[in-house]
Amino acid sequence: MRKKIDRFFVLTCAAATVLLAVTGLLFPQMTSAQKKFTLEDLNFGGTNYRNMIAKNRYATWWGNQLVGQDIEQCSLIDKKTGKATKLFTLAEINKWIGQEKAVASLYYASFPDAKQPLVLVESSKKRYLVNFKKHAVVWVQNADHQAHVDFCPVTRLTAYTPTDGYDLYVAGQEGQQPLRISSDASRNLLYGTSVHRDEFGYEKGTFWSPDGKKLAFTRMDQSMVTDYPLVHIPEIDWKPAQGESRMATPAPEKYPMAGEKMHKVTIGVYDIETGSSIFLKAGDPTDRYFTNPAWSPDSKTVYLFELNRDQNDCRLVAYDAVTGEKQGELYRETDEKYVEPSHPIVFLPWNSNEFLFQSQRDGYNHLYVFNLKTNSFRQLTSGKWVVMEMLGFNVNRHSIVIASNECSPIQRNLYEVNVDNGRRTLLDNGKGWHRGQLSTDGAFIYDNYSAPDVPRNIDIIDVAKAQRFAYFSAENPWNGYDVPKYECGTIKAADGKTDLYWRMVKPVNFDPNKKYPTIIYVYGGPHAHNVDASWHYGSRSWETYMAQEGYLLFILDNRGSENRGKEFEQATFRHLGQEEVKDQMEGVKYLQSLNYVDTARIGVHGWSFGGFMTINLMTTHPEVFKVGVAGGPVIDWKWYEVMYGERYMDTPQSNPDGYAQSSLLPKAKNLKGRLQIIIGTNDPVVLPQHALSFLKACIAAGTQPDFFVYPGEPHNMRGHQSTHLHERISRYFFDYLK
Prior knowledge:
It is a single chain. By secondary structure, the protein is α+β, with helices and mostly antiparallel strands. It has eleven helices and 44 strands. The strands form eleven sheets. An eight-stranded mixed sheet has the order 37-38-40-39-41-42-43-44, with helices on both faces. A hairpin with a 3-residue loop joins strand 5 (118-122) and strand 6 (126-131). The radius of gyration is 27 Å and the shape is globular. The two termini are 30 Å apart.
């Protein structure tokens, strides 16, 4: 659910946005019929997919030195000329380790010390720190059977949980006995893992202090959470040993449904020197969220954002890391709908009394500077745009580098923001979709980006001078193929005032005098978008495949999707699926106004929230949609998880009308077109109960959906099965939306 034309962009950002919104941007079509795409070319599970994506240059930072990474070699990159000089090779690393082929690739090599010539590499069983100037291993650590790995570069300790267990450990150098932090862990009691089902910015459950002497960690008691009965089916070619059963086995998933009991999280702190743990004295964790743990620069204080179950009252609280005592509440934010803390505070590296926090308190996600001495804060960035990411600091310039969509709602650009006065400086070319890696000192950015007609470019940016060096430009990997037209523009939302961005993919050899069957691809939910200013406006490769087969594709980001501000995102609060459908139908009206759209042949496809939207559209407007394919669909939000579901819908007990209105079960009787529902039988995100219950409702109503499952698969199909999936989706439209 959770859980992405040069000549037109030479105008100012604002002017370019207006042009984009008013006219849409067109790409010239390949004029001569050339090679045709297959799903093996275009699908990420396909056998030829790697040859069909834009070439890349992988790199990482060693302090402020740029290191190019390949399988066989790491090289120093001259930031002004792009010239590469060999640093070391894979063969040399393995020679210094003393084991041929121990390390398989240098793509994942890292440089944990900005001042020392040390590289961290890993084999299947061990972790090595190698001095590549002295050609010697300086440290070895066991890496076998470890999960939730968190390496501390200061102390060279690693927190982890065993792959065959639940307790939390800290490992030192090889030969040293690992420190065991917990002893009572179980499937019901987890330590050091991501909690709250990966919501609120959680990606891991361990957090090293700046001095590396303490480890904050999560403890999640989920004994009170109901098990959902998933089942593991043995592989087809699995041959049991004599006496072993061939029977499928239970694979239950702890799943807290909206309105039901949720797990309880507490935050502990382990002291490496004393070997003891304390827990922050935050009070009863029942029906509360503790999120975004952060450390003070002196490693003495832990900060948490604490949120009530209604998710409308958020507080930033400080705790003593030694005693666990509460030191005080620093900040509080409430909202009539919800507050969504997704980022920890970050202290200014030049001022230990000030930190940055992010908030949508003024309607858009922006940065604020909090002063501990005055217990007050000031807004650092502002405007009708959102801060999308903080890349890091430049200490010498008292600045922070961010990514934002200030240039355009569908762009992502890199800015330097002076923390003293708030002045912003655009660092990239003002076009496209940029992802930057900032050097340790904040002086340079490795800027990897694309634009609607640019598959991939990489610039090296000098932050102080705001100057760019063009390091790499990828060739178009689709040269020699018939490629459709990609367009982008805006329409008004159902509220009559809000701009919604759309993407259209027109069939190869498009003829405006013909009428084309049209497929709407939809997601529509929070924390996601479909249309942006990356290559082909973010078009999914399957859209190109279908356009090649004579279909027109249309994609619209409705209200409720991301990066457009609080009012835009909260428009769907307490009634998911209502405003989204209204907005998507504005897209249908636009399509119906186009002479080349066959309005009798409109289909719809989406996955997850998009699966929910697909069935919603087909059963709310059965007169419009002839064919639909819904993957992993939510059917009734009372069966979805607490954290996500209650944020946007409140509980079923407090919002019964909203849940009833959003449920697709009563709409099963409205189904007229051909609908295929596809799920993985072991989906732990959108449980199989959703699809199965809708099928039961259809049986009772006498309507006839089609159903296909991927045995043992989770929410998304893995590996080459994804190619099989997209062939099945395509065939369904070939069969019924001819």
